[in-house]
Write a structure and sequence with these properties.
heterodimer; A: mainly alpha; 9 helices; 0% strand; B: alpha+beta; 5-stranded mixed sheet; 14% strand; disordered N terminus
Chain lengths: 184, 216
């Protein structure tokens, strides 16, 4: 492995490891499994380093594509874990048990997302959680951008409607809302 | 109740509110977790570089495309030599075994080229039950659509392969089938430098591709 390649991998580790961990924690249960998936992803990244685009922005998308593939093959089996992975699992487990203040809100969002098709769920997550543009989502999911745009528009409308239904009719006065309806 | 900002109209969720709902459901990583994530990733890359399996994909697409018809024209002795030169007929390392039957990985390329590959798991120190489980992999399900599905996952760039399996396809198949092998034989682990002498380990794998209709 050349020095240049090693440096690129190290850059990728520094820039992407937390983002990829967050990506996995939002998608697996228990979230501690994200530690295994993160480790596995970087093993695959290393093995497929020859496929990594030279452009940093494209390399980031490519790495998320690898993560997606690792996630799709994820099976909860007994794994050989290093001490570091065990520590990270432990940290994630602690975080899981101590941050449930917004669990109702979170559960409702997950419930609403679950009514969408899997690909639409993933499009919504990539846009609203990972912050990717629709063009970047198309690259990660290896779909035409036009397809992603139309699916995103439909999925967003469906999700908004579902959340509004869930939210229920709201009386602005009763709820203490201060924004008045715009004058017509 | 969602932790959303007050709305001007009941029963609707606007775009900015939608993003807010996602944001409030997004638990940020703590600094210590982010640091650990980088350490885990760094460790994984070092392990991947230092401990590549000894038997990775020994691509034999250069030899195999002669096809059975041409091989039949060669003398028996030559054919035997040909066979011995092509994985999986090459010897494995001491104590390492190979499955009896490969997992078939068959597909047709965009240009209509038919490619029939086989994936052989290589392992050591397995129990009789694990050996049976690994040997059964090639026949315990219908694999006919598997290879095509994997091929269809490739980007156009990675389909431009002169001699299959090629690096990207080979890696994809190896990663996927190695995971399946570990799941099929409980107790089996991936071989690494830290594996114990007596551990039941998956040492590596070999994939071989043939072109039953010739290479075109």
């Amino acid at each position: 492995m050349t020095t240049h390649t090693s440096e690129r991998i190290e850059d990728l580790v520094q820039q992407l490891a937390p983002d990829l961990l967050a990506y996995f924690t939002r998608r697996v249960s228990p979230p501690a499994d994200a530690a295994d998936l993160l480790s596995e992803t970087f093993v695959v990244v290393c093995r497929r380093i020859g496929d990594m685009p030279s452009n940093d922005a494209e390399a980031r998308l490519w790495a998320f594509g690898v993560a997606r593939k690792v996630l799709s093959g994820h099976r909860r089996t007994s794994k050989r874990r290093t001490a570091l992975v065990k520590r990270l699992r432990s940290e994630l487990n602690q975080g899981e048990s101590s941050t449930h203040d917004d669990s109702t809100s979170e559960d409702r969002l997950h419930l609403a997302l679950s009514t969408l098709k899997p690909i639409d769920q993933e499009i919504m997550r990539l846009v609203h959680w990972e912050g990717f543009s629709q063009t970047e989502v198309a690259s990660i999911l290896r779909k035409p951008a036009v397809t992603i745009r139309s699916r995103y528009t439909r999925a967003r409308a469906a999700l908004r409607a579902r959340l509004a239904d869930d939210h229920g009719p709201e009386d602005p006065a009763a709820s203490g809302a201060h924004c008045a309806a715009p004058a017509h | 109740m969602y932790a959303v900002r007050p709305t001007w109209k009941a029963g609707t969720v606007h775009d900015d509110e939608l993003q807010h709902i996602f944001d409030t459901s997004n638990r940020p990583l703590t600094t210590s977790v982010a640091v650990l994530a980088r350490e885990v990733a760094s460790e994984a890359t070092q392990t991947a570089v230092q401990h590549r399996p000894r038997h990775r994909f020994q691509r034999v697409g250069i030899l195999a495309p002669v096809g059975l018809g041409i091989v039949a024209l060669m003398g028996a002795g030559t054919y035997a030599a040909y066979q011995l030169s092509v994985p999986p007929f090459v010897e494995t390392g001491p104590g390492v075994e190979r499955v009896d039957k490969p997992v078939p990985v068959e597909f047709v390329t965009d240009s209509g080229l038919r490619v029939n590959c086989g994936w052989w798991a290589e392992f050591k120190n397995v129990t009789p039950l694990q050996r049976d489980q690994l040997n059964a992999m090639g026949t315990n399900r219908d694999w006919r659509a598997y290879g095509q599905g994997m091929y269809d996952e490739l980007s156009a760039r990675n389909r431009a392969v002169r001699n299959w399996p090629g690096e990207t396809f080979g890696t994809l198949v190896e990663e996927d089938l190695a995971s399946r092998a570990l799941a099929a034989a409980p107790g089996l682990t991936r071989g690494s430098a830290s594996s114990g002498e007596e551990d039941s380990v998956l040492m590596g794998s070999t994939i071989r591709c043939d072109y039953p209709d010739g290479q075109g």
